[in-house]
């Protein structure tokens, strides 16, 4: 890790609908000198698991991630800016964009996934025992 990343402190700005335009203006200025961007995303979690055979555990993990990202909506996106030397800009250098999050919708999808999994098990049982 470059020394600059350790020495400089991160200053994080929370972005909501109310300050979106103002923070986007700041980012448009920062990116001119600090064009290296690290990105982090947050999703509600794991609500479904892929079924079937997989070539490897890596393939299973990829499918697990893909299924959940496809099904769920992002709840937060983080962007951190540095220059080619790994130095942060002074002041704000990380923006966390917060998206609308509906917990009821996540639970609904979780319930549907559970019902589907239970149905899948019943169907497999019926196929092997009938």
Automatic annotation (TrEMBL):
It catalyses: Exonucleolytic cleavage of poly(A) to 5'-AMP. InterPro entries: CNOT7/CNOT8/Pop2 (IPR039637), RNase_CAF1 (IPR006941), RNaseH-like_sf (IPR012337), RNaseH_sf (IPR036397). Keywords: Cytoplasm, Exonuclease, Hydrolase, Metal-binding, Nuclease, Nucleus, RNA-binding, Transcription, Transcription regulation. Its EC number is 3.1.13.4. It is found in: Cytoplasm; Nucleus. GO terms for molecular function: metal ion binding; poly(A)-specific ribonuclease activity; RNA binding. SUPFAM superfamilies: Ribonuclease H-like (SSF53098). The keyword Transcription regulation applies. It is an enzyme of class 3 (hydrolase). GO terms for cellular component: CCR4-NOT complex; cytoplasm; nucleus. Signal peptide: none annotated. Belongs to the CAF1 family. This is poly(A)-specific ribonuclease. It comes from Phyllostomus discolor.
């Amino acid at each position: 890790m470059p020394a600059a990343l350790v020495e400089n402190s991160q200053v994080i700005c929370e972005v909501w609908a109310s300050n979106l335009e103002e923070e986007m203006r700041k980012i448009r200025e920062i990116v001119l000198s600090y064009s290296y961007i690290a990105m982090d995303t947050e999703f509600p979690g794991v609500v479904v698991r892929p079924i079937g055979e997989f070539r490897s555990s890596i393939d299973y993990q990829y499918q697990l991630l893909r299924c959940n990202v496809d099904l769920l909506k992002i709840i937060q996106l983080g962007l951190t800016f540095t220059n080619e030397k790994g130095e942060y800009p002074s002041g704000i250098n990380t923006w966390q964009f917060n998206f609308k999050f509906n917990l009821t919708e996540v639970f609904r999808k979780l319930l549907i996934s559970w019902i589907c999994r239970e149905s899948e098990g019943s169907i497999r049982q019926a196929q092997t025992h009938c």
